[in-house]
Amino acid sequence: MSLAMVDWDQQLIEKYNYSGPRYTSYPTALEFNEDFGEQEFGLACDKFPERDLSLYVHIPFCHKLCYYCGCNKVITRHQHKADIYLDYLEQEIQLQAPRFKQRKVSQMHWGGGTPTYLEPEQLKRLTTQLFSQFEFADNAEVSIEVDPREIELSTINLLAELGFNRLSLGVQDFNKQVQQAVNREQDEAFIFALVERAKQVGFNSVNIDLIYGLPHQTRASFQQTLSRVLELDPDRLSVFNYAHLPSRFAAQRKIDESAMPSSDERLGILRDSIEFLTTHGYQFIGMDHFAKPDDELAIAQSKGELHRNFQGYTTQGEADLLGLGVSSISMLGDAYSQNQKDLKTYYAQIDQQGHAQWKGIALNQDDLIRRELIKTLICNFQLSFKDIEQQFDLDFQQYFAEDMQLLKPFVEDGLVSLSADALQVTNKGRLLIRNICMCFDVYFRSQARRQQFSRVI
Q1: Which residues contact 299 (CB under 8 A, 6 or more apart)?
Q2: Are the C-beta atoms of residues 204 and 198 closer than 8 Å to each other?
Q3: DSSP characters over 379-392
Q4: Is 17 helix (H, G, I), strand (E, B) or coil?
Q5: CB of 137 within 8 A of CB of 106?
Q6: 439-448 burial, b if ≥16 CB within 10 A, otherwise e?
């Protein structure tokens, strides 16, 4: 079987390259509302007490501003602010942990911001708190995002000692001109040293993040970055499409739009990336993710067991997800919940109410049906109508009559093939999986929603 499993059709890609959700959740975060409060959150926590638990911990601080970034972050050099944040985060951990005392934590991920903004003593403080308050499975995945510009090699040793076994490294691009244009200059040799140290001290997996669509990037320059990344030999790769939304993210206004690659050049970069990486042994998982064939993501996909949540593709789909920290999102029971997004508001609410829960949504039966369908399509590129019918006791063709009409152009263009009892995304349709999923998204049919998402490619 081809590792790429993608047929590039330039004309169709251009036809369908409009804005749409990334489907890290369905419904998307745009549907969250403040009618969903702490009481509803508590009910969601208790819905499936037998499930494993996945933890997401948000560390919002960064030393420097990367102009492309759309994450929830605080730029500061004042390290004591992290101590204040940890005071509040510990209050939140101590509030939430008793709700899950019967559960095993099978996965934990620290994102940001920059989790390695924390100094060694702060890292020890937070991990001690988490490991003492929650019960972790012996084989738990414990991962952390690392900025190679602001870290000592010895910190990799410390992270391993603290229980971390997976590393995600934000490289974005090795080209110096590109780095300067987005205010993210980094030492290439040090990145190689970091990855080498991680492998020496026993990290199970290393992921490298790249971004295409940044100023001064060309097909030729990005090819050089890919060649260097190949020498790092990561287990997984993410090649993200830069979403330029300066009206939403003020830092992006510092980017010179005239230096950004054209739409044709961007598509060329993506096409080259897929061809290069799959030629060199990586499997195209979907959207922007690649993995070695023996990686857990690739194995899960081949078995039809891959899942997707706010952290992207995952093997932990049967676990509930608890988000801790400012702006973090939980996926518990049949509901989503988000903490306060602004740091001062997060602090004030914990002081006044003892918790940080802000808004969310309890999924209705239609949401659950469509979430399962969209997740199955985006992870496995195929769908058995019978599986949906049996799981939710419905007639597929009747229930999705309107959706199947919306799907017709994709069938006519050869992006989807239909049989009496199944839907199969063709190799030509894999790059446009988000568009195919949109046919089943009742919220997206409101035209106003389209302006709030990035282009699919």
Answers
A1: none
A2: no
A3: HHSEEEHHHHHHHH
A4: coil
A5: yes
A6: bbbeebeeee
Helix (H) or strand (E) holding 162: none
Q: Is the pLDDT of residue 174 over 60?
A: yes
145-173 mean pLDDT: 96
> Exposed/middle/buried for 98, CB within 10 Å: 0-12, 13-18, 19+?
exposed
pLDDT at 262 over 90: yes
Is residue 223 scored above 70 in pLDDT?
Answer: yes
pLDDT tens column, 297-348: 999 988 888 888 877 888 877 899 999 999 999 999 999 999 999 999 999 9
DSSP secondary structure string, 19-49? B----SSSS-GGG-BTTS-HHHHHHHHHS-T
Q: Which two tokens stand for residue 64?
A: 């420097």
Helix (H), strand (E) at residue 211: strand 205-212
Q: What angle do CA 26, 29, 30 make, to 5 degrees?
A: 105
Question: How many whole angstroms separate alpha carbon 28 and alpha carbon 22?
Answer: 9
Burial of 13 (0-12, 13-18, 19+ CB in 10 A): middle
Mark out the alpha helices in 233-302 (DSSP H runs).
Answer: 263-279, 296-302
Please determine, for residue 455, whether its predicted confidence score (pLDDT) is greater than 70. Answer: no
> From CA 85, how far away is CA 392, in angstroms rounded?
43
In b/e form, how buried is each residue of 174-199, taking b as 16+ CB within 10 angstroms?
bbeebbebbebebeeeebeebbebbb
Question: Rg (Cα) of the chain, in Å, rounded?
Answer: 22
Q: Which two tokens stand for residue 66?
A: 């990367």
Contacts of residue 182, defined as CB under 8 A and 6 or more positions apart, other chains included, come to 66, 67, 68, 172, 214, 215, 255
Distances (CA, A) of 428 to 15, 130, 276, 355, 362: 13, 45, 18, 47, 35
Which tokens in the block code for residue 126?
């937070």
With a cut of 60, say whether residue 63 has pLDDT above it.
Answer: yes
Q: How far apart are CA 338 and CA 27, in angstroms?
A: 13
| Residues forming a β-bridge with 109 | 56, 143
Using CA atoms, how far apart are residues 302 and 343, in angstroms rounded to an integer? Answer: 41
Find tokens 């020496």 and name the residue. Answer: 200
CA–CA separation, 330 vs 310, rounded Å?
9
Tokens representing residue 166 in the block? 């997976």
